[in-house]
Every structure is written in C-alpha cells, then in structure tokens.
Amino acid sequence: MKTPGPDHPITIAPAAQRWRARFAGHVIADSNAALILQEASYPPVVYFPREDVEMGYMSRTDRGTHCPYKGDASYFTLHMDGQFAENGVWSYEQPFPAMEQIAGRLAFYPDKIEVYAVEDAAVNPNHRDAAPQDREAVDAVVQHTDSGAGFAQREHWAANVTPPATADDGGLR
What pTM did the predictor assign? Predict the structure, then answer.
C-alpha cells in the first residue's frame, strides 16, 4: 500500500455540479453527489454514489485489478438494448484508508460510457428554489417519462387514479 504524496498526488473533492453517465441512449447514472478524483497527471475520474446508478443493467465480472494507492477494484459489465460495455464500470469496494471516500462508488470508462456534467437548471429550472427532496422528485419524473421514442428510462408508474364507474349502456349516451 502506497500513500499519496507530492510524488503521486491524489485529491478527492465533491463535484461542483451534477454529473450523468449515458449508455445506449439511456441515462444510467445521475447524481448531484458525485466525487471527482484527480490522480497525478491522469484525467479526472467521476465517482458516482451507487444509489444514483441504475444497477439493474449491470453484472459483476471476474475481472479485478490492483492499484497500490487505492486498493483492489472490481468490475461490472453493462448490458442494455443489445449493447455491451464489457468491464466498463469499476468500483473500489474496500479501498485503502486514504481513499475511503470512494468506497462502493462507481466509475465509468469514458471510452465505453459517456460521462458528462449537467447544469441543474437544465434538469429543473427552479433547482435553486427547490428543497433536495423536490429535486429528487423532478429527476424521478423525468426518468419515468416517455421521451416520445416509445420508451422511458425506467418502468412507467402504475396509475394512481381509477376511471369513473359507468353504467353498462352499450356505449350510448
């Protein structure tokens, strides 16, 4: 185990904005609680909280890698709409103590899965006025709404109303 230092700096900071990951035309991760890990001269990596990632399309693989600074990584393959991103997602389930902030979070290979920043205003124009639970409600509605392409990112909700009772008059009024 190596500790980050001046010769190999690693910083972890809360993301300044909302981040998403998209695969096969679907948003599979959406978070305003992502962390940005900057390691030495490597490109920054966005780590998403697991609860903000749609895990239903992922399966754990046998692949594992070791980083002397972060620990052992496990991998997931993403399968959606007939497309695969084999080992396209990784997680440090039990990272070394210096990296405990990323424990259980997920990161995506950007050459397999699009990872991009989103302005909250693009998702909810009143985002600054809304309480956190209201922002989550807006996000849930967006993900359950059909975009016009014939499908939604999540299953449609069950109806919360019942139609009025009608007399059996054969359709005549």
Answer: 0.72
